[in-house]
Amino acid sequence: MVFTSFNFLIFFPIVIFMYFVTPQRYRWLTLLIVSYFFYINIEPVFALLTAAISLSTYFFTRLIDGTNDEKKKNKYMVINIILILLPLFFYKYFNEINNSIFMFLDQFNVRWPLPKIKLLLPIGISYYTFMAIGYTIDVYSEEIKAEKNLGIVALFISFFPLILSGPIERANNMLPQFRSGKNPDYDMISSGAKLMLWGYFMKLVVADRTGIYINSIFENAEFHNGSSLIVATLLYPIQVYGDLGGYSLIAIGVSKILGINVMDNFRRPFFATSMSEFWRRWHISLISWLTDYLYTPLTFAFRKYKIWGIVIALMITFILSGLWHGASLAFLVWGVMQGVLLSIEALTNKKKLTFEKKFNLNNNRLYIIISIIITYILFATTEIFGRGTDINEAITIFHKMFTTSGNIFIGTSSIVIYMIFGITLLLLKDFTDEFYPNKFLLFESKYKIVRIVSFSFVFILILLIGVLDGSQFIYFQF
Amino acid sequence: MLKKIIINIILIVLTIFILDFSIGKVLKHFYFKAVGGTNYEITYALEKTKADVLIFGSSRANHHYIPKIIKDSLGLTCYNTGRDGAVLLYQNAVLKSVLKRYVPKIIILDFIGGSDEIKQAYDDLSYLTPYYDKDIDIQKIVNLKGSFEELKLISNIYPYNSEIYNIFRNTVSNKKRSTDNGFKPEVGIWKKNIDTIKSIEPYNDSIIISANNEFLDLAKNSGSKVIVVYSPMYLHYNQKRDLDFMKSLCEEKGIPFLDYTKDTVFLNNRKYFKDPLHLNHEGATLFTNNFINKLKDK
């Protein structure tokens, strides 16, 4: 069951009813039951994994909390992190490592192949693994006390709106909310419903429609010219934004309706004027997790190297971020590219600031527009390697972009028209939210009629031009 | 708070209902008012054609069989109901609608039966949603799309999802019906070398398999002359189990089966292809003429 399936539209109202008829102090239990039901519906055996990770995390965080001996604390934390990471490594990296070793052995004819075990990656494993690790570290560093209720820890790891693709939440935000089970106020419910609707628009109208066009180019890259590949490359970030951004908004909206506040995951990323700013707006929950639990400790560890310490920390963080997406050479290259771009920014930051100050560029519209365009193009280019494809395919696309020319592929004109319409609406909304935050309000208008009509209009638009065949979300693969 | 929420929900549902009803009715009006364009070809196949020879199949059928050549050679009227991506479930719906009106003299099924086609078979039932309330057999077939299809079709807009542009274009341009009787020629020449495919597996979905059987039984029992064709591909393959499956099924039912996948006239000439799966106009002309000669022998 995914958010875009009709089953979910039946499941969710039932959940709301069950949640609010449950006495406040037991609401966590209702959420735990429906979360497991939700996950079991995808693949029953996956629920065993979340249960095991919950048990291990509960047990070791209690041990960490129960001792003052720093060595023991450290030992318990390390053991739990290793235990939590084992399934992730096994499912995500086993086949890749296997293949590499087999290829090596094949060269010397010293391999006796047996039938392969086909491993199905448990959806969401990368997300709940990070949440469990974050919680363990938070307890270790005494940011929070260990939760005494196993059910609430299990709920934190399996909470159904977040389990498949995040946002990667923190225990200090979620655990108190689960414990209290408080009623949402009217504003929370209303804003949750609006976020859900806009999330559906982003996914069904923008991401899935753009996906049809892009896939017809990327999946037949050998037959397309450079112009078409450039267009597909430039559109891909918008597809991902619609896909993961849309998913995140639905997840945040669903949580809000249940009275639970979840962190934002995207903040109008395509209006960033530099790569570092871009990464403060894109997949925020992942980047803030990596910043807190990896980048900051690394910069501290490498502080003696000054600015080069930051460069080392950036490179390690983004290489690991690439490998978090998948164990492939293409993702490694993606991570290196991000690290290099951010390092260049870090190294030239002072000069850039001086330059901007000297020519008073901070409020110069043309400078801002050019910076936004350059940032977008840089990110879109790196995403050729971040699509989850083979490195050779990515290189072929990259090469063809600059070596072949011709007319841009159009395909089915209705698809292109719906796609342009959806993208324009999305970017227009982001533009007004970014530059005119209190003007052109539709969902948040002070007039009820405007609010109701705009909500209904978006709903009708989804019915008219959304892709309604129950497609999957790109980030489930990670 | 509850009262406020309920009032707002009622207002929103009411607004959506009014918009859905009025926009849906407008779309329906213009959809069925069209006298040309792709949508009209579906309406024509389902509700109007009385051709002696009917071609069924996916895009391969649509681009491979030229009704004009068939008419000139056999002296029988011909209509090509083939449609991009439409596989067996769609074809069953068309055949059932046709047989309610008349019995064609010849039914030709261009078969492609790989397991890869299954998702497409269900997705392409969207072509039939505008006709949902017109025919009980179409209703039954469209309901195969998913458990909640009946519920979704309460909406007046849903049957026309993603069709607004085509409806608008056909209305504004006042597009007339093409004279090709359903056939759409492909333009262009394939420039790559021939590929080899390891294997094409047959359907592995019980609904599709029974739809396959049902199509052949319905066509045969109607009294029409039925023939199944695997038209040319610019591909070599090591194993073609979908073809073997259909061949044995046709043998069992006493239906002639023509296999063009090893025909060297096509395998050695990429100039007849637009892409490995589709003949271009020149290829389609050659193929239709060749096919008619074989048909006369059957």
Q: What would you say this structure looks like, in words?
A:
The complex is a heterodimer of chains A (478) and B (298). Chain A is mainly α and 478 residues long. Chain A folds into 2 domains: 6-183, no CATH class; 188-465, no CATH class. Chain A has helices spanning 6-21, 27-40, 46-65, 70-107, 125-140, 150-158, 171-180, 186-218, 226-257, 275-278, 284-301, 307-325, 329-358, 365-382, 391-403, 413-435, 448-465. Chain A is globular and about 65 Å long. The model of chain A has no long low-confidence stretch (mean pLDDT 91). Chain B has a single domain (36-148, 176-297), classed as Rossmann fold. In chain B, strands 2-1-3-5-7 form a 5-stranded parallel beta sheet, with helices on both faces. The mean pLDDT of chain B is 88. At the A-B interface, helix 1, helix 8, helix 16 and helix 17 of A face helix 1 and helix 9 of B.
Concise overview:
Chain A is an all-alpha fold. Chain A has 2 domains: 178 residues, no CATH class; 278 residues, no CATH class.
